[in-house]
User: Fold these one by one.
Assistant:
Number 1:
Amino acid sequence: MTTIRTVDVDLGDRSYPVLVGPGALEHGSEALAALCPNRRAVIVGDKTALDLHRARLDAMLAGAGLDPVLIELDGGEAAKSWTGLQALTDQLLALNIERRECVIAFGGGTIGDLAGFAAAITKRGVGFVQIPTTLLAQVDSSVGGKTGINTAAGKNLAGAFHQPSLVLADTGLLESLPERELRAGYAEIIKAGLIADETLFERLETAGASGLHGDALTAAIADAVAFKARIVAEDEHEAGRRALLNLGHTFGHAFEAEARPGALIHGEAVALGLVLAFDYSVRLGVCPQEDADRARALVEAAGLPATINTLAGGPYDAGALVARMGADKKNAGGAITLILARGVGKAYIAPGADVKDLTAFLNEEVTQR
Ligand SMILES: NC(=O)c1ccc[n+]([C@@H]2O[C@H](COP(=O)([O-])OP(=O)(O)OC[C@H]3O[C@@H](n4cnc5c(N)ncnc54)[C@H](O)[C@@H]3O)[C@@H](O)[C@H]2O)c1
């Protein structure tokens, strides 16, 4: 039987719990009520998730003695914009939200990132709670305090670190998630194993496609959250080790920026990015081929794209992808920083990528597979 697992993100007096499991919503209702001193729950919710789970959310809030104040938004990358941020901030100010109150994000990573950024800047920072409703948001974006929006120059280029005070990752909410979104979120769990948790990776390998559902999925979510919590506690503001969490993302963000609008979803780009990071590590002679093969096999077993030609939103051009990689936030001194791996569970930060070689590599990947 699955029980709720509590993972603590240890950040001194800003530490917070992440409750993971089916029923985390109700289990965490008292903790939520304690964060809503005016007895109102200001919820920034993804319309789709609200349509599907409104009755349960309302019952939980009523049980906790809270009145909901709902701001419904369309989820998706388009929500993470300057105009979206402005509109939401104005709405929060119109509600006269107080600094001791909380903005409660109820949705996927896009709603969480936007609502968190609005919470960070409204009145110089009001409280923040995450109720992630996608797998990606439960295992990754709801934990760690990175918030932000996309700009004309690229994804997530404006934002703030603003930690939540509570995260309720109710795995029951995932039952309504389309299979494609579920797979995309699974990419971030695979990522956690590949970075520094070979035991988790082996469990995922053993589970294969069955790891995407039921108790196996809940356990993997809790493990991935615990892994992320450890890294965030060590390096909250990404001065060093936290950059490892970007494994697959330098490639992934470039694909997202180049893809036909709306055709590609984040986790798919990350899945391919993981495979490419391992393939490129093999090319540089730092990673055994066998480990890259394991990464590719697990990505494929999860039904995720492992070659450029099977990635939605193409065709892709190697030169354009590398140009996009040049705009990544991790870069220093104009050189591209990649996250590469010496093997499964052995990711490292590799500054100063050779742009010519990277372009040649991607060109081969585009044409050969
Ligand atoms: N802040 C961070 O640390 C961090 C980390 C990783 C990713 N991200 C960001 O997260 C975003 C991606 O998040 P996402 O994958 O959750 O996308 P998303 O927020 O766009 O949600 C995906 C889709 O699922 C729908 N949906 C949400 N909950 C549902 C439910 N329970 N049932 C059915 N449908 C539901 C949404 O309406 C949307 O159409 C990206 O913008 C990425 O940059 C942030």
Number 2:
Amino acid sequence: MNISHASLAEWGLSHLKLRQAMIILDVGCGGGANINHFAQIATGGRVFGIDYSPISVKVSKEVNKKWIEEGIVEIRESSVSNLPFEDNTFDIVSGFEAYYFWPDLINDLKEIYRVLKINGELLLINEGYKCENKEIRKVVENWAKLGNFKLHSPKEYREFLTEAGFFEIDIYEQKEKGWITVIALKQKI
Ligand SMILES: C[S@@+](CC[C@H](N)C(=O)[O-])C[C@H]1O[C@@H](n2cnc3c(N)ncnc32)[C@H](O)[C@@H]1O
């Protein structure tokens, strides 16, 4: 997972300004590679990861051992539906290849909204969506069928994020590869 998703993550993250003092949560952290990337930048902040799979939590902890020992990273076993954090905690909540598996999309997004700070941003980076390229779309629709998950078009992303309460939804498409990055704001003051 860590290696195969690296170029997707790099492209997606190029749309976001990361700062040293940020408090970040990676939801569905898998093998922990993105936590590791965040920790190298947010050295004056904290980086948290959650995943409902004990194996992912174990691997993420191994990959981020150094950062955990330095007190920058913390990884917990948890579902996206019930995040073990106070309201208004994070500057960024990310989900890399993750939202497809969330059991109750709108309520799970509302749970993320709850833990974001007022000016906090949700970042979704995905390898598959309802893209215009017919060949790529056929391949990803096949994955979605096999994995029993739903794909969305950019318009549908806007709709479900708006329904969950988000503002200023920016969508970036890598049309040659069929990748999508979505950045949405909790609330602007
Ligand atoms: C396709 S993997 C992506 C992992 C990682 N973000 C990456 O890009 O390499 C999806 C991850 O989401 C986790 N996951 C699925 N459903 C979840 C849920 N309801 N709550 C928390 N994590 C979940 C899985 O255990 C898995 O580690």
